[in-house]
Amino acid sequence: MPPPRRQRRVVPTGSAALALLLAASCTVLRNPKGSDCAHDGWCPDGYACFPDFRCYPYDAEPPCNPPCYGAEPYCDQATLRCIECRSDEDCAIGSLCTPALKRCQPGCNAGRTACPEGLTCDLAKGACRGPGPGCTSDLACTDPFKPRCDASTGSCVACLPGREDCSPGSFCVLSGGSYRCMQGCTSVGDCPAGGPEQVMACCDHRCVDVLGSSEHCGACGNGCRNADACCEGVCTDLTRSASHCGGCGRSCYLPNVTGVRCTNSTCSNQGCQQYFGNCDLNLTSNGCEVNHSFDPRHCGSCANVCSAPPHRVPRCVLLSCSQTGPCEAGWGDCDGNWVNGCEEPLDTANHCGDCAVTCGASQTCRGGMCQ
What is the pLDDT of residues 123-159, one digit of tens each? Predict the structure, then answer.
């Protein structure tokens, strides 16, 4: 007989309000495989709402997203987060898996007494210790490669967490039941500057660009779920985002285009906005590049080219051609009759630089000035 319907509903910790919301019930039937249960936590019989807010069979083990690897290779089914260990057996000899943090820490117990070579399990202290009392301070550690005293084990080690024992670009980590320096960052100061469109951060002792890392999108630990991509530091659904359609930076937004959408990673739109036109027939590249209200080459429509009287500049005003445009450089409308255009050149002694300027009898007009 299958378990009760909500027996394995898992709610993320730290949000009492969300827990109350997920406790509500809904009667709308949805697709049980991968359906969204974020609003009310409802799943059909035989399925449960997991921490990624999706319905899975009770006996399923959904993967963490993004996948787990490196220092945290296991997926915690209770939280769907990557962890260092699930049980003591996942840790190196001489260390145990802490139940709360799911991290390996130095120690041993009656069920796991194995210790690194030269050490034995002190059950009273729950630690692997060497023969004799062991070290009690750094003064007892004379090996230059192991200058620190791990008081919990009485052993001399290369470093201790929380201390500046390792060289820049490395950090102190438990390995093989003892603390050692491993290559990796401890702060953003250990990371390269990055490019002009990168923001570097030290996450899990790795230098990452938080503008493009799906594991640390925008900030360390902020992993993108449901195969979303990290675009400019924001987890993005590339199948629906009009700003990142099918890939980061692939924008559907074009100049003066309306009804922009992204569907299944493909851009679409409803054409040009009112009063704008796609006169070069290259909508996907530069959108609707022409303003029909003021472009004399496409006034009111792509095919309408404005004309003008001689030496007068063609003009388009509110979708209509106008004959009252300004004169071309070096010409003037000296008779005030716009019909015959700008009839006078402005480089003569009678009209030097302006219709009203007349040069003296002994002067000539050069460059629009009487000389």
Answer: 888 888 776 667 888 988 889 999 999 887 788 889 9
> What is the reported pLDDT for 47?
85
Residue 284's H or E segment, with its range, is: helix 283-286
CA-nearest of 270, 237, 236, 265 to 254 is 270
CA angle 70, 73, 76 (to 5 degrees): 145
**Cα distances (Å, whole numbers) of residue 101 to 235, 320, 323, 334:** 26, 73, 80, 89
Distance separating alpha carbons of residues 283 and 325, to the nearest angstrom:
31
- Provide Rg for the chain, Cα atoms: 38
- Contact of 233 with 218, CB cutoff 8 Å: yes
Q: Report pLDDT digits (tens) over 262-273.
A: 999 999 999 999
Output the six-digit token pair for 285: 């590249």
Instruction: For residues 238 and 229, give the distance between their C-alpha atoms in angstroms, rounded to a whole number.
Output: 7
Residue type, 29: L
Locate the domains of the chain by residue range: 1-62, 84-183, 292-371
Q: SS3 of 175, please?
A: strand
| Structure tokens, 189 | 């100061």
- Residues 6 or more apart whose CB falls under 8 angstroms from that of 5 comprise 43, 45
Which amino acid, one-letter code, is at 84? E
- The rounded distance, in Å, linking the Cα atoms of 266 and 240 is 8
Alpha-carbon span 362 to 227, nearest angstrom: 85
CA atoms of 71 and 324, how far apart (whole Å): 75
- DSSP secondary structure, 314-338, as one string: -EEETTEEES-PPBPTTEE-TT--G
Hunting for tokens 């769907």 — which residue is that? Answer: 80
Cα-based torsion angle of the residue sequence 324, 330, 334, 335 in order, rounded to the nearest 10 degrees: -60
